[in-house]
């Protein structure tokens, strides 16, 4: 591309910085409010930064409800779902990309229609189903689907990646007497590590951030996830924004850390989905 | 790729003799490895969809036996006997109808912006994407605080600049526009997918336009947009499907209020099934959602055939 003129560059940077403010300011304001003391909360004009950092807010906010418990629940659900998705979506993607069975691509095409089916359409029968098994208000309804394919989207993503691995590798392994289990474990998984990381990250976010699933399936407070804990908090502290923002910050921070560590993987993973779509 | 594939097929045929000796053929292995999703698709998708259709014709709540009532659920929705159905449809059409096209245009523009040759490119890309990874329940809280009518920073800033303020989420006329504004904050996925597409456009096309004396606008109209049409299409379909399922924002921020102005369809569906425990009528509501999404997707696919340019047609099967 040609060198751009000075005026052009200024406009571009102004827009980029303006956009960044729009995307970053809410996060900054959340952190700022979480550290301000009650007296300064409603002050006019508002202080851009707190005079002194009120870490008490966090203590107060987290002490109000068993957030430790919620954190543990969210962790258990997210970790179990991640294991399930990584295992079952990779196995299925292997079948749809490396094993040549009759009708494979037709079956895959049919399963892909699942991408368009909203969870809301299957939510009520699923609830009835889990209720009949006496498994509502447990983590099972939130974890089990992960072990049964782990989402069509993840299979789709891994399949795209596995298809790009040269078949010569499988052929060579077959000559050496390797079966599908060994090819999957020793060839495809190690090469597909990159794609597995993307799927793992997306699964982490989907489960950690999930609001609807727990709301539909979990009823007793001791089984609440962090997201439910947050709405519980909202109910009783609605005007105490400094405490609300402290609780919200605590919930946001794990996702934020994961993003900062793995930013590149996220963005490449998302980009991958569009190009081949 | 074609000749390669047929060589491959010949190899497969040669191998078949060897393979048939094994008791467990490729079909067996294929089904075994695919069994999680095959089972999962039956248990969590096909059977539930059939059940949704069935329950839609019944009066049912958990713990009772479904009672067949024919089209009564649908009749009460369409006749307006259920006072929430039309407000929910209205709010959803308003929300989806504006947030999707505006969101697509805005994110396309932002992707073009991120595709410029500037320093700190990957930093800006990360910043634009960041809101997507924040739990929606949490960002909804944050935006409620930003837009709090009396003490929120946004109204304070508007007042300081002598601009009109708003009740934002607290007023029937401004609540949906506010939700639309909030939806722009989480456009990151769409932006990144557009960006990936823009990066794939060959530079020589732009050079050709430059040789012909074309300007920026010509590049946008004759190259960028046509070359991105399949991705614009992809993002639009996804945005519509997701838009119809917007739940967390109204559930956390407004509970559908004030006066049902932000009662988006799936929130209404959820309330009907889980709060009022009318699962039969909630199933009828789900069936309508299912049909609308299917029709919509089919229609977009149908109309897009003439509008979308695909490079290398054989890629589409």
Notes on the protein architecture:
The complex is a heterodimer of chains A (277) and B (317). Chain A folds into 2 domains: 6-59, no CATH class; 65-236, MetI-like fold (Orthogonal Bundle), CATH 1.10.3720. Chain A contains 14 helices and no strands. Chain A has helices spanning 6-34, 38-41, 56-64, 67-98, 104-112, 119-132, 140-147, 152-163, 168-175, 180-191, 193-208, 212-217, 226-236, 241-276. Chain A starts with 5 loop residues before the first helix and ends with a helix. The model of chain A has no long low-confidence stretch (mean pLDDT 88). Chain B has 317 residues and is an all-alpha fold. Chain B folds into 2 domains: 2-55, no CATH class; 79-309, MetI-like (MetI-like fold). In chain B, strand 1 (58-59) and strand 2 (67-68) form a beta hairpin. In chain B, helix 2 (26-55) packs across helix 15 and helix 9 packs antiparallel against helix 12 (229-244). Residues 312-317 of chain B have low confidence and may be disordered. Classes of the chains: A mainly alpha (277), B mainly alpha (317). Chain A: One of its GO terms (biological process) is transmembrane transport. Chain A: It is found in: Cell membrane. Chain A: Keywords: Cell membrane, Membrane, Sugar transport, Transmembrane, Transmembrane helix, Transport.
